[in-house]
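Hi R.,

As promised on Friday, here is the backbone we talked about, encoded as structure tokens. Could you run it through your design pipeline when you get a chance and send me back a sequence?
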């Protein structure tokens, strides 16, 4: 008997799997036929067939069939996902129960007629009992079915994890069927002396059957996860099932279907219009959609859809993505990653975004190779900018130290005869300080903080004037070739700085060709479009440029070296052979001119440097030069000196007093304002530009309020956008850049006072 029970249980459990794998028309027809047979057999087999589980628990054939009916119904609702399915099942229950009632009543009437032969000697009470059981059973079946659907709807609106939903569904299934075992005996025979025993047996039997069918239910929900997810995502209102007219319900279903079709069409139009690869996979990672952009990978849609994605592409290429996709499927959360795919010529970087979509996952793949290049260029530019600010700050402080060194040596030589030994020591100090000043000028050039003397300049003139010097500089084993554009448009530039750029590039090319080679120097008019400037980054605007090209046939550079060549103090030469400031200076000068410098190099092929400078839109007058100090007569004027650096302030005061000037020394802005208020008739304000509490321009404005006729001379270790572009100083004001000699300071002071007298 136990074997028979297990066989029945297994057979009835397999039926939902059969329905789930049939096409829609066959599935619906066979399903309703199967349920009809179950309902008929449940009513008649309940009192005929029984399976004893223990001495107190006996499972009737009706319970076995009824639980199979409920399980199959619930799983079929999940498969079909339509309200009309439930309505059809309710109609089926009513129809079959009415049929059984009529049939039982007819048989009962026939058995009461003595003229009708009864070959099985079946009692009339059996069919009378069937009438009651059928009526109560049909009502309970519909009630319990609606209760289950109600519980399922409540669960799926509150829980989104598919695994927990499955467990809660099975728990609800067991609870509702156990209640059936409690309610059924009470309704059938409430006055039975064995009612309590019948209730215990009914609840226990229904629990065993519900739990037994719960195992195949869980297996079904795991195997048909996609259908479960779609069912969970589709709202099903119980009041619509009970109260909505059939026509309105059908119209609503049609409307939803049309909406789904329209949404799918919009989705496909959108997916086909994007330039990025887009595809979707089911829970088994089989491709369900493949857009036009994805076909550029060489795989057509018909070759990919329906196949396991990782069978289409080479395993080593995409294998690392398998775990990424599986994680999205398991967690149900979107994720993003970057993936490098090796390719001939150039590796490609891709950004992969995966999103849960139904039971599967949708994938968007963007080619971000160009973006990564631009990000790297931007980071390099920001790094160079940071290094430039640091270098400029160091050079500024260094210039403040050079002022007292130079000035003290100069004052010492003024008090000694040129024939004295100590005079020679001071001269050497001065020469070393000048070399140090030259080094700081290179650093300032890199950091774009040099004072530029702009003029209209033809690059051809610079190349032509320096050709002889270049030949002597590089030696006879290197051949020079010049290709100059005769129609080259002039640029606005500082000639001395551009000459420095050319010489530094030539020296760099010479060092790259120790065994000789060819040095090519050329010019040309070029127009850079937006795609070109974006490809090379550094925020260089599109436009018309005059280009200076320096090309060598030397040993070249690899990509890692090219990333660092413009950094200060970076050099590939042996120790003592170079400072690492040559190309850094080139970079800084070109950037300060608003241009750009690009390099292309390959090992054992050579290097090409291209300098781009904007065409001159208007002529910039060449600034007047400070006349050389030929007549440094003693002065008699009063000078207010404001300098926060004690060493610089002391030596400037001493130097100016040596030339006869009266110096009022202020250590900060507040001290300077006090002296200006207490001492009328000050002729000149000599002030540093950058100071802690107030800049030199603001100080001058306040001093002018006290002494309107006062002149001003600004001094600073550098001038950059902080000084000029932001209005601290305007172009054309009296300015002297550190480091400077006492003689040049005195000459500049005389010029400023001469302007006032004039």
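Update: got your reply. Pasting your designed sequence below so it's all in one thread:
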């Amino acid at each position: 008997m136990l074997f028979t029970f297990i066989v029945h249980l297994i057979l009835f459990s397999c039926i939902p799997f059969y329905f789930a794998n049939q096409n829609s028309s066959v599935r619906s027809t066979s399903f309703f036929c199967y349920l009809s047979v179950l309902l008929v057999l449940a009513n008649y087999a309940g009192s005929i067939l029984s399976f004893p589980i223990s001495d107190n628990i006996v499972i009737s054939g009706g319970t076995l069939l009824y639980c199979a009916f409920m399980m199959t119904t619930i799983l079929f609702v999940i498969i079909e996902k339509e309200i009309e399915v439930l309505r059809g099942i309710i109609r089926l229950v009513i129809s079959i129960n009415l049929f059984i009632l009529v049939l039982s009543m007819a048989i009962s009437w026939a058995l009461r007629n003595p003229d009708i032969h009864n070959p099985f000697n079946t009692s009339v009470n059996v069919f009378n009992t069937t009438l009651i059981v059928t009526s109560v059973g049909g009502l309970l079946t519909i009630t319990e079915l609606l209760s289950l659907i109600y519980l399922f709807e409540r669960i799926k609106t509150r829980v989104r994890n598919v695994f927990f939903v499955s467990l809660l569904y099975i728990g609800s299934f067991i609870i509702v069927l156990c209640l059936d075992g409690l309610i059924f005996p009470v309704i059938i025979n409430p006055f039975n002396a064995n009612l309590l025993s019948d209730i215990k047996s009914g609840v226990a039997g229904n629990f065993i059957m519900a739990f037994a069918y719960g195992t195949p239910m869980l297996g079904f929900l795991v195997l048909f996860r996609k259908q479960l997810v779609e069912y969970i995502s589709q709202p099903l209102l119980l009041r619509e099932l009970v109260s909505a007219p059939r026509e309105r319900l059908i119209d609503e279903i049609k409307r939803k279907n049309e909406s789904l079709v329209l949404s799918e069409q919009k989705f496909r139009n959108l997916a086909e219009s994007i330039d990025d690869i887009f595809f979707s996979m089911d829970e088994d990672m089989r491709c369900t959609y493949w857009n036009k952009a994805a076909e550029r990978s060489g795989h057509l849609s018909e070759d990919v859809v329906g196949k396991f994605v990782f069978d289409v592409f080479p395993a080593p290429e995409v294998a690392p993505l398998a775990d990424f996709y599986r994680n999205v499927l398991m967690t149900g959360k979107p994720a993003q990653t970057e993936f490098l795919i090796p390719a001939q010529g150039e590796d490609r970087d891709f950004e992969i975004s995966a999103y849960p979509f139904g039971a599967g996952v949708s994938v968007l793949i963007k080619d971000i190779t160009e973006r990564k290049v631009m990000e790297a260029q931007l980071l390099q530019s920001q790094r160079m900018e940071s290094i430039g600010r640091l270098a400029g700050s160091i050079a500024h402080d260094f210039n403040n130290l050079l002022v007292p060194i130079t000035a003290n040596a100069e004052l010492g030589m003024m008090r000694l005869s040129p024939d004295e030994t100590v005079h020679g020591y001071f001269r050497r100090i001065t020469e070393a300080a000048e070399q140090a000043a030259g080094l700081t000028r290179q650093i300032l050039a890199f950091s774009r903080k040099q004072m530029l003397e702009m003029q209209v300049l033809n690059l051809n003139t610079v190349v032509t004037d320096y050709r002889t010097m270049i030949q002597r500089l590089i030696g006879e084993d290197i051949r020079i070739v010049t290709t100059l554009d005769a129609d080259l448009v002039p640029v606005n530039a500082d000639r001395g700085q551009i000459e420095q750029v050319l010489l530094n590039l030539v020296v760099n090319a010479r060092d790259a060709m120790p065994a000789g080679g060819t040095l090519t120097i050329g010019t040309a008019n070029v127009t850079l479009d937006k795609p070109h400037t974006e490809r090379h980054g550094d925020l260089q605007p599109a436009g018309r440029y005059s280009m200076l090209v320096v090309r060598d046939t030397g040993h070249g550079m690899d990509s890692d070296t090219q990333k660092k060549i413009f950094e200060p103090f970076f050099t590939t030469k042996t120790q003592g052979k170079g400072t690492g400031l040559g190309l850094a200076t080139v970079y800084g000068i070109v950037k300060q001119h608003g241009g750009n410098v690009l390099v292309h190099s390959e090992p054992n092929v050579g290097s090409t440097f291209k300098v781009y400078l904007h065409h001159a839109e208007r002529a910039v007058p060449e600034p007047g030069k400070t006349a050389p100090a030929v007549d440094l007569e003693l002065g008699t004027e009063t000078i207010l000196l404001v300098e926060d650096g004690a060493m610089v302030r002391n030596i400037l005061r001493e130097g100016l007093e040596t030339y006869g000037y009266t110096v009022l020394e202020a250590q900060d802005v507040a001290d300077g304002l006090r002296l200006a208020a207490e001492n009328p008739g000050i002729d000149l304000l000599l002030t540093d530009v950058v100071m802690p509490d107030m800049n030199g321009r603001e100080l001058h404005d306040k001093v002018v309020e006290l002494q309107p006729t006062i002149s001003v001379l600004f001094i600073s270790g550098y001038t950059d956008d902080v000084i000029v572009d932001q209005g601290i100083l305007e172009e054309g004001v009296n300015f002297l850049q550190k480091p400077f000699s006492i003689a040049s300071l005195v000459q500049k002071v005389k010029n400023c006072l001469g302007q006032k007298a004039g």
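One thing I noticed while checking it: The CA atoms of residues 440 and 621 lie 27 Å apart.

Thanks again,
M.
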